[in-house]
Amino acid sequence: MTQERTNSPLARALRAARREARLSQGALAAAAGCGARTVWQAEQGQGHLASYQRLAEALEMEITGRSLPPGDHLGTRLRALRLRKRVTLTRAAEVSGISVGTLAAIERGEQGHLASVERLADALGAALTLVPRGQALAFFTAAGNSSAHDAWTTPTDLLDRLYAVLGGPFSLDPCSPGAVLSPVRAGRHYTREDDGLAQDWHGAVFMNPPYSRELGRWTAKARTEVEAGRASLVIGLIPARTDTRWWHQDIAGHAHAWILRGRVRFGGASTAAPFPSALVLWGGDPDVAAAVCRAFPDAWHTVAGRSPGTDAAAHQAAA
Protein backbone atom coordinates (compact mmCIF):
# COMPACT_ATOMS: atom_id res chain seq x y z
CA MET A 1 0.00 0.00 0.00
CA THR A 2 1.31 3.44 -0.91
CA GLN A 3 1.98 5.59 2.12
CA GLU A 4 -0.09 8.79 2.15
CA ARG A 5 1.74 12.08 2.19
CA THR A 6 0.85 13.95 5.38
CA ASN A 7 2.84 17.18 5.22
CA SER A 8 0.66 18.91 2.61
CA PRO A 9 -2.38 20.64 4.14
CA LEU A 10 -4.06 20.93 0.73
CA ALA A 11 -3.52 17.22 0.07
CA ARG A 12 -5.13 16.34 3.40
CA ALA A 13 -7.99 18.77 2.78
CA LEU A 14 -8.75 17.31 -0.64
CA ARG A 15 -8.66 13.75 0.66
CA ALA A 16 -10.96 14.66 3.55
CA ALA A 17 -13.41 16.45 1.22
CA ARG A 18 -13.50 13.50 -1.17
CA ARG A 19 -14.15 11.07 1.64
CA GLU A 20 -16.79 13.35 3.10
CA ALA A 21 -18.51 13.26 -0.30
CA ARG A 22 -18.20 9.43 -0.25
CA LEU A 23 -16.37 9.34 -3.55
CA SER A 24 -13.57 7.04 -4.60
CA GLN A 25 -10.55 8.50 -6.36
CA GLY A 26 -11.92 7.10 -9.62
CA ALA A 27 -15.35 8.65 -9.08
CA LEU A 28 -13.83 12.07 -8.34
CA ALA A 29 -11.63 11.77 -11.43
CA ALA A 30 -14.69 11.03 -13.55
CA ALA A 31 -16.56 14.01 -12.07
CA ALA A 32 -13.60 16.31 -12.78
CA GLY A 33 -12.95 14.88 -16.25
CA CYS A 34 -9.40 13.76 -15.50
CA GLY A 35 -7.50 10.58 -14.79
CA ALA A 36 -7.40 8.74 -11.47
CA ARG A 37 -3.65 9.37 -11.27
CA THR A 38 -4.35 13.11 -11.15
CA VAL A 39 -6.45 12.57 -8.03
CA TRP A 40 -3.76 10.37 -6.49
CA GLN A 41 -1.07 12.99 -7.18
CA ALA A 42 -3.17 15.80 -5.71
CA GLU A 43 -3.76 13.78 -2.56
CA GLN A 44 0.01 13.37 -2.24
CA GLY A 45 0.59 17.12 -2.59
CA GLN A 46 1.94 16.64 -6.12
CA GLY A 47 0.92 17.75 -9.60
CA HIS A 48 -0.14 21.15 -10.86
CA LEU A 49 -2.28 23.71 -9.08
CA ALA A 50 -4.65 23.83 -12.07
CA SER A 51 -5.39 20.10 -11.71
CA TYR A 52 -5.94 20.48 -7.98
CA GLN A 53 -8.35 23.38 -8.50
CA ARG A 54 -10.26 21.34 -11.07
CA LEU A 55 -10.75 18.57 -8.50
CA ALA A 56 -11.75 21.09 -5.83
CA GLU A 57 -14.36 22.57 -8.17
CA ALA A 58 -15.80 19.10 -8.79
CA LEU A 59 -16.29 18.85 -5.01
CA GLU A 60 -17.79 22.37 -4.96
CA MET A 61 -14.84 23.54 -2.88
CA GLU A 62 -12.32 26.35 -3.32
CA ILE A 63 -8.87 27.22 -2.00
CA THR A 64 -8.51 29.97 0.55
CA GLY A 65 -6.17 30.84 3.39
CA ARG A 66 -5.57 32.94 6.47
CA SER A 67 -5.63 36.72 5.92
CA LEU A 68 -5.62 36.41 2.11
CA PRO A 69 -6.83 39.67 0.54
CA PRO A 70 -9.44 39.42 -2.24
CA GLY A 71 -8.23 38.97 -5.79
CA ASP A 72 -8.97 37.53 -9.22
CA HIS A 73 -7.05 34.32 -8.51
CA LEU A 74 -4.91 32.70 -5.85
CA GLY A 75 -1.70 34.18 -7.28
CA THR A 76 -2.88 37.78 -7.02
CA ARG A 77 -4.12 37.12 -3.48
CA LEU A 78 -0.73 35.73 -2.46
CA ARG A 79 0.98 38.73 -4.06
CA ALA A 80 -1.28 41.13 -2.16
CA LEU A 81 -0.49 39.32 1.09
CA ARG A 82 3.25 39.48 0.36
CA LEU A 83 3.07 43.21 -0.30
CA ARG A 84 0.96 43.74 2.82
CA LYS A 85 3.68 42.01 4.85
CA ARG A 86 6.34 44.09 3.06
CA VAL A 87 8.23 41.01 1.91
CA THR A 88 10.26 41.40 -1.29
CA LEU A 89 10.15 38.87 -4.12
CA THR A 90 13.73 37.93 -3.37
CA ARG A 91 13.09 37.38 0.33
CA ALA A 92 9.89 35.41 -0.30
CA ALA A 93 11.76 33.21 -2.76
CA GLU A 94 14.56 32.66 -0.25
CA VAL A 95 12.21 31.74 2.59
CA SER A 96 9.96 29.50 0.47
CA GLY A 97 12.82 27.77 -1.33
CA ILE A 98 11.54 28.47 -4.84
CA SER A 99 13.07 30.63 -7.56
CA VAL A 100 12.15 34.27 -8.08
CA GLY A 101 10.93 33.39 -11.57
CA THR A 102 8.64 30.64 -10.27
CA LEU A 103 7.30 32.92 -7.55
CA ALA A 104 6.57 35.71 -10.05
CA ALA A 105 4.81 33.25 -12.36
CA ILE A 106 2.59 32.04 -9.52
CA GLU A 107 1.67 35.63 -8.68
CA ARG A 108 0.76 36.25 -12.33
CA GLY A 109 -1.65 33.35 -12.20
CA GLU A 110 0.46 30.99 -14.31
CA GLN A 111 -0.39 28.24 -11.84
CA GLY A 112 2.76 26.17 -11.24
CA HIS A 113 3.21 23.06 -9.15
CA LEU A 114 0.99 22.58 -6.13
CA ALA A 115 4.01 22.03 -3.85
CA SER A 116 5.58 25.36 -4.92
CA VAL A 117 2.35 27.25 -4.27
CA GLU A 118 2.07 25.68 -0.84
CA ARG A 119 5.66 26.56 0.03
CA LEU A 120 5.06 30.18 -0.96
CA ALA A 121 1.82 30.31 1.03
CA ASP A 122 3.53 28.75 4.05
CA ALA A 123 6.33 31.31 3.88
CA LEU A 124 3.72 34.08 3.98
CA GLY A 125 1.75 32.39 6.76
CA ALA A 126 -1.33 31.95 4.57
CA ALA A 127 -2.22 28.38 5.72
CA LEU A 128 -4.04 27.27 2.56
CA THR A 129 -7.04 24.99 2.92
CA LEU A 130 -10.34 24.12 1.24
CA VAL A 131 -13.75 25.53 2.10
CA PRO A 132 -17.16 25.08 0.45
CA ARG A 133 -17.49 27.43 -2.50
CA GLY A 134 -18.59 30.90 -1.41
CA GLN A 135 -18.08 30.23 2.30
CA ALA A 136 -15.83 32.47 4.38
CA LEU A 137 -12.89 30.87 6.14
CA ALA A 138 -13.74 30.00 9.74
CA PHE A 139 -12.15 32.21 12.40
CA PHE A 140 -10.05 29.47 13.94
CA THR A 141 -8.47 28.84 10.54
CA ALA A 142 -8.45 32.42 9.35
CA ALA A 143 -6.72 33.96 12.34
CA GLY A 144 -5.70 31.09 14.50
CA ASN A 145 -3.75 28.48 12.60
CA SER A 146 -0.59 28.83 10.65
CA SER A 147 0.96 26.14 8.55
CA ALA A 148 3.53 25.66 11.25
CA HIS A 149 1.43 25.75 14.36
CA ASP A 150 -1.76 27.18 15.80
CA ALA A 151 -0.34 30.49 16.82
CA TRP A 152 -2.49 33.66 16.75
CA THR A 153 -0.88 36.64 15.03
CA THR A 154 -0.24 39.35 17.62
CA PRO A 155 -1.90 42.73 16.91
CA THR A 156 0.69 45.40 16.20
CA ASP A 157 -1.07 48.03 18.33
CA LEU A 158 -0.76 45.77 21.39
CA LEU A 159 2.93 45.25 20.65
CA ASP A 160 3.49 48.99 20.27
CA ARG A 161 2.19 49.54 23.80
CA LEU A 162 4.52 46.85 25.12
CA TYR A 163 7.53 48.39 23.32
CA ALA A 164 6.69 51.64 25.11
CA VAL A 165 6.63 49.75 28.43
CA LEU A 166 10.10 48.29 27.80
CA GLY A 167 11.54 51.31 26.04
CA GLY A 168 12.31 49.27 22.92
CA PRO A 169 12.06 45.85 21.27
CA PHE A 170 12.13 42.49 23.05
CA SER A 171 15.25 40.37 23.30
CA LEU A 172 13.53 37.19 22.15
CA ASP A 173 10.40 35.92 20.41
CA PRO A 174 10.44 32.13 21.06
CA CYS A 175 7.16 31.38 19.23
CA SER A 176 7.94 33.00 15.91
CA PRO A 177 7.12 32.31 12.26
CA GLY A 178 10.54 33.83 11.54
CA ALA A 179 12.11 37.26 11.61
CA VAL A 180 10.63 38.20 8.22
CA LEU A 181 7.04 37.29 8.99
CA SER A 182 6.83 37.90 12.74
CA PRO A 183 5.13 41.15 13.81
CA VAL A 184 7.28 41.07 16.97
CA ARG A 185 10.36 43.28 17.05
CA ALA A 186 12.98 41.19 18.80
CA GLY A 187 16.70 40.62 18.68
CA ARG A 188 16.22 36.92 18.09
CA HIS A 189 13.39 34.70 16.86
CA TYR A 190 12.94 30.98 17.50
CA THR A 191 10.78 29.24 14.91
CA ARG A 192 9.07 25.90 15.16
CA GLU A 193 12.17 24.29 13.70
CA ASP A 194 14.30 25.87 16.45
CA ASP A 195 11.87 24.54 19.11
CA GLY A 196 11.66 27.38 21.60
CA LEU A 197 10.72 24.93 24.35
CA ALA A 198 14.12 23.25 24.02
CA GLN A 199 16.15 26.50 23.97
CA ASP A 200 17.35 28.73 26.79
CA TRP A 201 15.59 32.09 26.86
CA HIS A 202 17.26 35.39 27.62
CA GLY A 203 16.50 39.02 28.38
CA ALA A 204 13.00 40.41 27.88
CA VAL A 205 10.87 37.81 26.14
CA PHE A 206 7.54 38.15 24.35
CA MET A 207 5.57 34.92 24.07
CA ASN A 208 2.46 34.37 21.96
CA PRO A 209 2.43 30.55 22.10
CA PRO A 210 0.37 27.96 20.23
CA TYR A 211 -3.17 27.90 21.63
CA SER A 212 -3.46 24.13 21.74
CA ARG A 213 -3.04 21.41 24.32
CA GLU A 214 0.64 22.22 24.58
CA LEU A 215 -0.07 25.73 25.88
CA GLY A 216 0.68 24.56 29.41
CA ARG A 217 4.21 23.61 28.35
CA TRP A 218 4.81 27.20 27.30
CA THR A 219 3.49 28.76 30.52
CA ALA A 220 5.66 26.32 32.50
CA LYS A 221 8.66 27.25 30.33
CA ALA A 222 8.06 30.98 30.90
CA ARG A 223 7.85 30.50 34.65
CA THR A 224 10.96 28.30 34.91
CA GLU A 225 13.11 30.48 32.61
CA VAL A 226 12.44 33.49 34.85
CA GLU A 227 12.86 31.52 38.08
CA ALA A 228 16.18 30.14 36.79
CA GLY A 229 17.38 33.66 36.03
CA ARG A 230 17.88 33.10 32.32
CA ALA A 231 15.09 35.47 31.25
CA SER A 232 14.71 38.77 33.06
CA LEU A 233 11.00 38.84 32.24
CA VAL A 234 8.47 37.12 30.01
CA ILE A 235 5.30 38.78 28.77
CA GLY A 236 2.79 36.34 27.35
CA LEU A 237 -0.36 36.94 25.32
CA ILE A 238 -2.58 33.95 26.02
CA PRO A 239 -6.26 33.02 26.24
CA ALA A 240 -7.73 33.84 29.66
CA ARG A 241 -8.49 30.22 30.58
CA THR A 242 -8.51 30.71 34.33
CA ASP A 243 -10.08 27.29 34.92
CA THR A 244 -7.13 25.35 33.51
CA ARG A 245 -4.44 23.49 35.42
CA TRP A 246 -1.65 25.47 33.79
CA TRP A 247 -3.21 28.78 34.84
CA HIS A 248 -3.22 27.71 38.48
CA GLN A 249 0.22 26.08 38.34
CA ASP A 250 2.13 28.75 36.42
CA ILE A 251 0.22 32.03 36.68
CA ALA A 252 -1.92 32.29 39.83
CA GLY A 253 0.44 33.40 42.58
CA HIS A 254 3.45 33.38 40.23
CA ALA A 255 2.83 36.16 37.69
CA HIS A 256 1.00 39.39 37.12
CA ALA A 257 -2.02 38.93 34.88
CA TRP A 258 -4.14 41.49 33.03
CA ILE A 259 -7.47 40.20 31.72
CA LEU A 260 -7.98 42.39 28.66
CA ARG A 261 -11.28 44.16 28.22
CA GLY A 262 -13.24 43.02 25.18
CA ARG A 263 -11.98 40.54 22.60
CA VAL A 264 -8.68 40.86 20.78
CA ARG A 265 -8.71 41.12 16.99
CA PHE A 266 -5.76 38.98 15.93
CA GLY A 267 -3.68 39.60 12.83
CA GLY A 268 -5.71 40.32 9.71
CA ALA A 269 -8.89 38.71 11.05
CA SER A 270 -12.16 40.41 10.15
CA THR A 271 -13.73 39.44 13.48
CA ALA A 272 -12.57 39.45 17.09
CA ALA A 273 -11.46 36.28 18.85
CA PRO A 274 -14.21 34.06 20.29
CA PHE A 275 -12.50 34.02 23.72
CA PRO A 276 -11.09 36.54 26.22
CA SER A 277 -7.34 37.16 26.30
CA ALA A 278 -4.82 38.00 28.99
CA LEU A 279 -1.37 39.49 29.24
CA VAL A 280 0.81 37.69 31.77
CA LEU A 281 4.09 38.99 33.20
CA TRP A 282 6.61 36.68 34.79
CA GLY A 283 9.54 38.47 36.43
CA GLY A 284 10.40 42.10 35.86
CA ASP A 285 10.47 44.77 38.56
CA PRO A 286 7.52 46.71 40.01
CA ASP A 287 8.11 49.55 37.54
CA VAL A 288 7.43 47.22 34.60
CA ALA A 289 4.16 46.00 36.13
CA ALA A 290 3.13 49.59 36.85
CA ALA A 291 3.92 50.56 33.25
CA VAL A 292 1.77 47.70 31.91
CA CYS A 293 -1.07 48.91 34.13
CA ARG A 294 -0.76 52.36 32.59
CA ALA A 295 -0.56 50.94 29.06
CA PHE A 296 -3.71 48.82 29.57
CA PRO A 297 -5.83 50.86 32.00
CA ASP A 298 -9.06 48.98 31.21
CA ALA A 299 -7.62 45.54 32.01
CA TRP A 300 -8.34 43.68 35.25
CA HIS A 301 -5.02 43.23 37.04
CA THR A 302 -4.16 40.42 39.45
CA VAL A 303 -0.85 40.81 41.27
CA ALA A 304 1.98 38.28 41.29
CA GLY A 305 2.26 36.43 44.59
CA ARG A 306 -1.36 37.13 45.49
CA SER A 307 -4.51 35.36 44.41
CA PRO A 308 -7.54 37.22 43.01
CA GLY A 309 -9.35 36.39 46.25
CA THR A 310 -6.65 38.15 48.23
CA ASP A 311 -6.91 41.19 45.95
CA ALA A 312 -10.66 41.30 46.44
CA ALA A 313 -10.32 41.07 50.22
CA ALA A 314 -7.74 43.83 50.23
CA HIS A 315 -10.00 46.01 48.11
CA GLN A 316 -12.96 45.46 50.46
CA ALA A 317 -10.80 46.27 53.50
CA ALA A 318 -9.59 49.48 51.87
CA ALA A 319 -13.15 50.45 51.06
Order of helices and strands: HHHHEHHHHEHHEEEHEHEEHEH
- The pLDDT mean sits at 84
Count of β-strands: 9
Helix percentage: 40-55%
Major sheet details: 5 strands, mixed
Number of helices: 14
Description of the structure:
This protein is α/β, with parallel strands linked by helices and 319 residues long. Helices cover 41% and strands 14% of the residues. The chain is built from 14 helices and nine strands. It is elongated and about 65 Å long. The termini are far apart.
Q: How would you summarize what this structure contains?
A:
This protein is of the alpha/beta class.
Overview features:
319 residues; alpha/beta; five-stranded mixed β-sheet; two-stranded antiparallel sheet; 9 strands; disordered N terminus; disordered C terminus
